[in-house]
Amino acid sequence: MQTLKDLKALTAFLKETQVLSSAISLLSWDQETYMPSGSGQARAEQLSALMGLVHERQTGKEMSQLLSASVDLETGELKAGSSSGDARASALLREIWRDYHRATQLPSDFVRRMGLECSLAHQVWIEARNKNDFAHFAPSLKKIVALKKEEIDYLGYEASPYDPLLDTFEPGLTVAQIAPVFAALKEMLVPFVEKIAASPAQPKDDFLRAFYDEEKQIIFGKKVLAAMGFSFDAGRQDISAHPFTTSFHPTDVRITTRVDPHDLLSSLFSSIHEGGHGLYDQGLSVADFGTPLGESISLGIHESQSRLWENGVGRSRPFWRYFFPILKETFPDVLKGVEVEGFYAAINAVRPSMIRVESDEVTYNLHIMLRFEIERQLIEGDLKVDALPELWNAKMEEYLGVRPKTDAEGVLQDVHWSGGAFGYFPTYTLGNLYAAQFLNQAKKEMPELDARIEAGDLLPLKKWLNDKIHRWGRQYTSGELVQKVCGETLNPKYFSDHLHKKFGEIYRLE
Ligand code: ZN
């Protein structure tokens, strides 16, 4: 018979494990921001020692003893009286078991082999991209695909071998759920992109690549972050090669950006994007730190928060009605003669591009469709790694009307596969779909929201997200959360409607 004392001992153990994990995150953050270039070897040893400790705590005897007081370790079934009928306590145990089960499903020998192969493959991928030579990366990628198939055997599946890979990043999501949604989205987007390209109303946006002082860009970005409610007492913004967000605790959330003096949008929108991630992490429950109830639900929900702020707010007209005059004061010379309407159209220009991370709100998801389809064929079918560059380029031409001339601007552009992150890409599109659905719901509940944003007051939206999404941690699955917040499950209609309304107006489409 287990008791409340057992649950307390279990959560205390988890919190201590999380403190160690936070130290790993801090060392990793430092590696990307301030670490001297000669410290790589020493840092790798520090990280690997701490990771070993954390893995031992997550899967070891102490953990299994503490958890088995409340949960059947084999099936995940709660033992009688373990949650006393309390929904939050039973969700807590469900999620703790989920993590434990996943961590123990993979033999440690396999985890080591995968870790080693990925760290080697990462180096090879960098070389291959620099040399613009997929053949250099192909042998590594073949090994990783084989290891992923081995991993799938350990994890097991019912309908599709791709399901356990999706489940890693978006718990509960299956191919059967998402494939029809993505197929319909693709069918809508391809002709929509063609229509936009054929429109005579093309925004003029060359002024975005004039000279913008880097320091002033950062100061302006921080003004926007402060208006969003990002707390600089509980977070920082620093510079890194690739923008990211990491969190050590809800009171210590780090976001990064990069600045290009000839690209006004790069730093600005990465700040807003990472700021959206940061607000989620700052909005998690401090009392539940270290347990699943103090963690974000999934990558898709996390991405919905960054996309909602970046695209739903940061690329909207009400936002710039307030912020454009401030931007103009910051850069009076370069923006002389630019009006808010012209600026709004310029930052929303749609241009099919080779590179996913540089693409706009409309074409972005086609880059994801392509990757999703290729990953499925690699995992479910018998697509050969050597055939990837040609298939990639053919799909780019079919979906976006552009064909990469080199592997570097085609199949080699993303880091994900070198790290074994198959099943990750779909969460980006999922984030876009959730974001549009959440924002639609927020506007329904707060009809004055656009007027508030136009007055520079972004806090009502931040508070709504804190209340509806952030504070719950992993009490609900992503599907349950969307149902709870919006009264329906994932519905791509809101994203589709948003694109048609916004870009139909900018490009004067019928
Ligand atoms: Zn993101």
Please render the helix and strand layout as text.
Layout: H1 4-33, H2 40-59, H3 61-68, H4 87-105, H5 108-131, H6 134-155, H7 163-169, H8 175-198, H9 214-228, E1 235-239, E2 245-249, E3 252-257, H10 264-282, H11 299-313, H12 317-330, H13 340-347, H14 364-379, H15 388-400, H16 426-445, H17 449-454, H18 459-468, H19 478-486, H20 493-506
Parallel strand pairs: 1-3
Antiparallel strand pairs: 2-3
Zinc ion binds next to α10 and α11.
Q: List the uncertain runs.
A: none
SS content category? mainly alpha
Estimated radius of gyration: 23 Å
Largest sheet: 3 strands, mixed
CATH domain topology of the largest domain: Neurolysin, domain 3
Average the pLDDT over all residues and give the rounded result.
Answer: 95
List the total number of helices: 20
Q: What's the order of the H and E elements?
A: HHHHHHHHHEEEHHHHHHHHHHH
Hetero groups: zinc ion
Number of DSSP-assigned strands: 3
- Reading off the top of the CATH hierarchy, the class of the largest domain is best stated as Mainly Alpha
Percentage of residues assigned to helices: 55-70%
Strand content: under 5%
The CATH architecture term of the largest domain is: Orthogonal Bundle
Could you give the distance between the termini?
A: 68 Å
User: How many domains make up the coordinates?
Assistant: 2
Choose one word for the global shape. globular
Strand order in the sheet with the most strands: 1-3-2
Q: Descriptors for this entry?
A:
3% strand, Neurolysin, domain 3, 20 helices, single chain, 510 residues, 3-stranded mixed β-sheet, globular, binds zinc ion, mainly alpha
